[in-house]
Design a protein that fits this description.
By secondary structure, this protein is mostly helical. The chain is 69% helix and 0% strand. The longest helix is centred in the first third of the chain and has 25 residues, at 66-90. The relative contact order is 0.10.
Length: 246
């Protein structure tokens, strides 16, 4: 669970509310253990109830369905990842945009390697029959990309970002794509121009692609022994692609 959980529990007013919050925390904790052991498709509230030490009907008073448990696990994992990224980025000076980008990438990778089952729930294959509710998962689920865009936008405003790499300005941004980028820019209050924002999307997807290849074993067992060095190289290339000046 995230560090915000104890503070949220303290804000609850009655012993009954606090007891309910602790029970839900226990359900999520056990759910994460089952996720790591059996995978998302095999999650079962009955099994969680058994490990919690209650009858299955009792657990439904706190989590009404398997889908609700999956949503709780998604939000918990997204926020844990977001907290790790915020802490890593916040430890770097505000004007060290390249360092903050590298810290963000390293934090995502470290969390993913430490929590592969939770990472797979967030970024792996969809769970059959489950649709994440956007109203509950969009905010937590976009924390990392919001942090990434904030770094790029901050670098642009400070004059520390080029036109997103040496060739980005030579690639046409169509009217339809420009409309999408304008919507994003307006929603997030960004100053970055189209080439920077479009390249930022490529940096975002490439970062998670590199991490997914490692977490899911797509490199194979022997292709790269120097995984840390490979990822550092990826981050350097992506920083230059984004236009960050080193």
């Amino acid at each position: 669970m995230t560090d915000a959980a104890p503070a949220a529990e303290a804000a609850l007013r009655t012993p009954r509310e606090r007891a309910r919050a602790r029970t839900i925390e226990d359900i999520v904790r056990i759910g994460r253990e089952h996720l790591a052991l059996h995978g998302a498709a095999a999650l079962s509230l009955r099994a969680v109830a058994r490990d919690l030490g209650v009858v299955s009907s009792a657990v439904y008073r706190y989590v009404e369905s398997r889908e609700e448990l999956l949503t709780l696990l998604l939000v918990d994992a997204y926020n844990e990842l977001g907290d790790a990224v915020d802490a890593a980025v916040g430890a770097r000076p505000e004007n060290d945009f390249t360092g903050r980008f590298e810290a963000l990438g390293a934090a995502v990778r470290n969390w993913a390697l430490a929590q592969p089952a939770s990472y797979a729930l967030l970024f792996g294959s969809p769970v059959p029959g489950y649709q994440a509710p956007a109203e509950r998962t969009t905010g937590p689920g976009t924390r990392v990309v919001v942090a990434l865009v904030a770094i790029l936008d901050g670098a642009w405003r400070a004059g520390n970002l080029s036109e997103a790499g040496p060739h980005a300005a030579d690639v046409d941004v169509t009217a339809l794509l420009a409309a999408d980028l304008a919507n994003i820019r307006g929603e997030m209050g960004l100053a970055v121009p189209d080439p920077v924002l479009a390249s930022g999307v490529l940096v975002w997807t490439s970062l998670f692609g590199a991490i997914s290849f490692e977490v899911f074993g797509q490199y194979g067992p022997d292709a790269f022994v120097a995984r840390d060095e490979l990822f550092a190289h990826h981050l350097g290339v992506l920083a230059r692609l984004a236009g960050l000046r080193t």
